[in-house]
Amino acid sequence: MALAIRDVHEHDLDAVLALNNIAGRSILALDAAQLRYFYEHADYFRVAEIDGQLAGFLIALRDGGDYASPNYRWFSAHYPSFVYIDRIVIANAYRRHGLGRIFYCDVNSFAEVRVPLLTCEVFLEPCDDVVVLFHGTYGFQEVGQQRMGEHGPQVSLLAKDLPSYAFVRDTYLEHSGLPDLPWLAGRGPQFTHGSQARRLPGSGPHE
After folding, report:
1. In this predicted model, what pLDDT tens digit does every residue of 83-119 receive, in sequence order?
2. Alpha-carbon span 156 to 191, nearest angstrom
3. Would residue 85 count as lying in a domain?
4. Could you give the number of structural domains in the chain?
């Protein structure tokens, strides 16, 4: 089995959209415009390929954007600097391969050299004990709850401290910046963090 985790390409978007919209109740549906917003503005948007087949994806955004998700906005109101995991989707055929943990290790590595906090939310209605346990064992703690709109589900807002960030900040970010190494790089030239972020039509979290 050959596994690759890489930045999304534009030609992946149709497959990503289809995968998102068959994921079930725990993932809010997207349309093409919403997915295009993520392609143009998400700080982290990577896909997993297994033997050349799209097996999953994870989308995350840094603070400072104009993303309309009520959960992203909750974190924006409470924390000055964070990476927010909007959604992670694994194709049914590739579940139980450990891809969730691989993605979380990867986004953790992306976040800890940029911000002090990794955040996300999980639905409590319906509550999935496997998802709650997964996040707890990965170091997330509940920092709040809210209901998504008047009739939306109750969610648990989770955050994970990234203790390595202080070293990176003091040693690199406050001086010459991160070294020019591939594993430290952000997304490609089609993306620039903080540039003319547009509002996402509607609002929607991840899982």
Report:
1. 999 999 999 998 888 999 999 999 999 999 999 999 9
2. 30
3. yes
4. 1
207 is a domain residue: no
Residue 153 lies in a domain: yes
Structure tokens at 18: 């289809």
Lookup result for tokens 């997330």: 140
Q: Does residue 197 form part of some domain?
A: no
Tell me whether strands 117-123 and 154-161 are parallel, antiparallel or unpaired: antiparallel
Instruction: Identify the CATH number of the domain in which residue 68 sits.
Output: 3.40.630.30
